[in-house]
Structure to design on (864 residues):
């Protein structure tokens, strides 16, 4: 009969759809491959007796020294965990107020022309490669700050934290701006209608309504900061000291991998330890991003109700 | 009015959007080479019914159907039905003109180019010309065939969309309020066109405009809340409605 | 009273606005420093000659050459996969389905994986597992199982996959649903509709994604430093299985490994200026195409 399905057409279409579907599924495969191969190279620390002669899980948390290449190697993660925390904290202390204020300004107060300029401007900052930020912090900013404040040590956690802040401001800004823009116009109209000033409307109504999204933006920036490599590798001085002092040189988890993987003996305890650090980074950023995503979705649901 | 043989048979047809029933047990016969109008208040299911006839409902998530619609005896919701083939036989014109952002020529040629065996691909020029003539737009666009269809006025765009549908040589043409987005002059042109097209095609048109139904259609189906209230010859139904609800609707007491 | 409040509010708003000024200042200072420090090094020679004397003299040609080489391979890998994924997500996938949610989750996560972890993965997967496995089965050693352009580019490709996907999806979203319906109603198949109606309109949006991906790929160092990039090579790479020099890594190496940092800094500044000029112009192009596409979308076209 005339309306019966044409075999060849049906075949062609399902072939194309199948291919596209398989290709799309690649993203899932890749995530699992990443997890699998990072795990594969970290697990010997737990299960391989030969490797365990050199290093076991306990070593990661005993002592306060990371000295993988020495006659008596030490593998304590504390100094580099502390380094990551320190630098991330400094970066966020700097970047969060700047980025959130800028987002608030551009979506609540800036006039049309200026508004159109701010977003691309921030995107340009986002477009600066991290190696360039690291270069700038290492070659220019460090000496400038040292002279300005009379620091003893040129490359320290504050220098790196500030440069890292440059890298995460755009990330926080763009998500925070999305969150603030997602607040319906009616909220503002209601506030202004009740006699609130624009400032009151922005800070007492809009910002609180967008708060989950702004928190999501902060978490998102935190994930970026923890995972960023080149800036801290170049700007932090790279000494794995266990120190809370922000004016001393410091070393993050990412920089540790970057600095040492090139020289490591393949299959050694040190080699597996570096993959383990990678595993920790993967897990931590995964969790942070998940939380950020959940918060942002939560905001959207709160503002617009459940979507499909 | 003599009735030709029935092209489309709708039998106990129901449609659900997720759980909500949008059409309930519709049964009607749509005769060949006539214009059948579907009327009724907004939201009563006119578009839904129309979209059921070329299975465009399938693009919407969560649609389920019961019953059958037969085209020349073949159930279009039956097994192994080729929707592509169905849609080539049952063309559609939408409420808002939706030309592709391509040239007028490419718009009209589109369906032919997508066809499997390249029928008439050699004489594409001729197909485009005759389709545009059939849609009464040829004179207005013949000098600008390769300019974008988006530059045309709404009424012209809609006639290009009709030409685009005609180029595939359908047997049935579905029109969903084809003139509702147009001004009165453009509307008159479309109506005139519909009147001529029925010599060759079976036409089903949705309209919420009683006068329009009276002007263009031979048969009318009156729908309310997803149910078919009355179906019959248009002149009879408008002068002597067989149902209280129809009468109230026609006399403008609601809708 | 009222006046006082207005003045107070304006001061507060001004303070908020100063955050924008600060961002502009950061941008200006970084750009200014690098332009002033780098423009003197720029010359035809600089762009066409290799680096000499332990990176204290000469140009950056091999780094530019290697960068272009690796970016080409990256694009060949990432564009088809990214575009196909976006097509699946936007045109085929049903939103509620488990597979759809998994793919979306994976893409989101991929975007958040730290770049250095991609480097570890490239080393463990591409070089050791795939490359080592290839070498083993071919009965040779050190051809595929070592860092090279191919593995570095594929690592970069994976890292940039989310960017292409997101850009393409945005472009697909901008194509009006009514046009898809129009094509399907004319008896076009789903793929014909995508191929002949949807994709032609999405091209500029996809190009934005491609341009931004090139820009990002050009600046990434962490994922490639163990998967293919070399400190220094006295020759240009010929095959995808060769190691390569690349601009970003070259900047890092020059500033951290130079025997004579004072002699190297001007060259490094010049190299940084070239990299910045490249990424900025690509970004500008991307931003311009995107805002154009968005305004078209707003006009409902
Ligand atoms: N995509 C859809 N999803 C869910 N419900 C729909 C959808 N389209 C239409 N409906 C519902 O089906 C009913 C009939 O709609 P429709 O056929 O568009 O009516 P009409 O064309 O007569 O105005 C309405 O109640 C409408 O809300
Ligand atoms: Mg309707």
């Amino acid at each position: 009969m005339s309306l019966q399905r044409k075999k060849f057409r049906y075949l062609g279409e399902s072939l194309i759809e199948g291919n596209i579907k398989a290709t799309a599924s690649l993203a899932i495969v890749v995530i699992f491959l990443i997890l699998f191969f990072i795990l594969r190279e970290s697990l010997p620390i737990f299960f391989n007796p030969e490797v365990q002669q050199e290093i076991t899980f306990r070593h990661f948390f005993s002592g306060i020294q990371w000295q993988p290449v020495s006659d008596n190697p030490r593998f304590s993660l504390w100094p580099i965990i502390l380094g990551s925390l320190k630098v991330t904290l400094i970066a966020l202390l700097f970047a969060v107020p700047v980025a959130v204020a800028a987002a608030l300004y551009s979506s609540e107060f800036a006039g049309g022309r200026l508004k159109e300029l701010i977003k691309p401007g921030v995107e340009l900052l986002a477009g600066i490669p991290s190696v360039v930020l690291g270069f700038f912090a290492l070659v220019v900013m460090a000496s400038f700050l040292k002279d300005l404040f009379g620091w003893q040590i040129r490359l320290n956690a504050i220098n790196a934290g500030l440069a890292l802040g440059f890298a995460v401001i755009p990330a926080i800004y763009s998500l925070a701006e999305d969150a603030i823009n997602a607040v319906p116009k009616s909220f503002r109209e209601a506030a202004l209608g009740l006699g609130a000033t624009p400032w009151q409307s922005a800070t007492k109504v809009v910002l609180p309504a967008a708060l989950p999204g702004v928190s999501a933006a902060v978490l998102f920036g935190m994930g970026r900061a923890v995972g960023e490599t080149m800036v801290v590798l170049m700007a932090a001085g790279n000494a794995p000291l266990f120190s809370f002092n922000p004016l001393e040189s410091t070393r993050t988890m990412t920089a540790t991998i970057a600095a040492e993987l090139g020289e490591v003996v393949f299959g050694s305890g040190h080699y597996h330890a570096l993959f383990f650090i990678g595993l920790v980074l993967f897990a931590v950023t995964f969790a942070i991003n998940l939380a950020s995503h959940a918060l942002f979705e939560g905001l959207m649901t709160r503002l617009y109700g459940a979507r499909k | 009015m003599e009735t030709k043989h029935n092209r489309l048979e709708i039998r106990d047809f129901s449609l659900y959007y997720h759980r909500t029933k949008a059409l309930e047990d519709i049964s009607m016969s749509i005769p060949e080479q006539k214009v059948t109008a579907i009327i009724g208040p907004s939201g009563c299911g006119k578009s839904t019914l129309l979209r059921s006839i070329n299975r465009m409902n399938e693009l919407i998530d969560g649609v389920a159907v019961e019953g059958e619609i037969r085209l020349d005896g073949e159930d279009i919701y039956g097994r192994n039905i080729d929707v592509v083939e169905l849609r080539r036989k049952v063309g559609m014109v939408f409420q808002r003109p939706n030309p592709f952002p391509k040239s007028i020529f490419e718009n009209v040629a589109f369906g032919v180019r997508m066809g499997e065996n390249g029928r008439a691909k050699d004489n594409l020029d001729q197909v485009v010309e005759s389709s545009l003539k059939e849609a009464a737009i040829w004179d207005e666009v013949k000098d600008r065939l390769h300019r974008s269809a988006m530059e045309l006025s709404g009424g012209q765009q809609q006639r290009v969309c009709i030409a685009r549908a005609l180029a595939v040589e359908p047997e049935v043409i579905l029109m969903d309020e084809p003139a509702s987005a147009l001004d009165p002059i453009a509307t008159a042109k479309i109506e005139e066109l519909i009147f001529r097209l029925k010599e060759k095609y079976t036409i089903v048109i949705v309209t919420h405009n009683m006068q329009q139904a009276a002007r263009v259609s031979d048969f009318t189906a009156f729908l309310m809340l997803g149910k078919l209230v009355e179906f019959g010859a248009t002149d009879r139904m408008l002068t002597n409605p067989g149902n209280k609800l129809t009468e109230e609707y026609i006399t403008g007491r609601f809708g | 009273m009222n006046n006082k409040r207005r003045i107070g509010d304006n001061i507060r708003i001004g303070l908020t606005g100063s955050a924008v000024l600060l961002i502009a200042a950061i941008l200006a200072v970084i750009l200014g420093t690098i332009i002033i420090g780098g423009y003197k090094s720029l010359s035809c020679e600089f762009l066409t000659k290799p680096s000499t004397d332990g990176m204290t003299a000469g140009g950056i040609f091999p780094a530019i050459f290697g960068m272009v080489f690796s970016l080409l391979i990256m694009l060949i890998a990432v564009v088809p996969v990214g575009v196909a994924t976006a097509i699946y997500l936007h045109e085929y996938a049903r939103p509620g389905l488990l597979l759809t949610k998994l793919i979306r989750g994976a893409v989101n996560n991929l975007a958040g994986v730290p770049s250095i972890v991609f480097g570890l993965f490239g080393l463990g997967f591409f070089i050791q597992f795939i490359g080592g496995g290839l070498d083993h089965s071919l009965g040779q050693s050190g051809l595929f199982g070592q860092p090279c352009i191919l593995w570095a580019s594929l690592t970069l490709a994976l890292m940039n996959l989310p960017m292409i996907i997101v850009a393409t999806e945005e472009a697909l979203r901008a194509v009006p649903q009514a046009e898809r319906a129009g094509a399907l109603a004319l008896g076009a198949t789903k793929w014909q509709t995508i191929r002949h109606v949807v994709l032609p309109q999405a091209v500029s949006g996809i190009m934005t994604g491609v341009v931004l991906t090139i820009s990002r790929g050009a600046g990434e160092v962490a994922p490639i430093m163990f998967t293919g990039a070399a400190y220094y090579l006295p020759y240009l790479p010929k095959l995808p299985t060769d190691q390569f020099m690349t601009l970003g890594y070259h900047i890092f190496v020059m500033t951290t490994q130079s025997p004579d940092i004072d002699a190297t800094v001007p060259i490094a500044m010049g190299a940084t200026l070239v990299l910045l000029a490249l990424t900025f112009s690509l970004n500008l192009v991307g931003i311009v195409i995107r805002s154009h596409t968005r305004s078209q979308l707003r006009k409902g076209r």
The pocket of adenosine-5'-diphosphate (ligand 1) is lined by residues B 17, 22, 42-48, 60 (CB under 6 Å). DSSP finds ten helices and two strands in chain C. The longest helix of chain C spans residues 261-298.
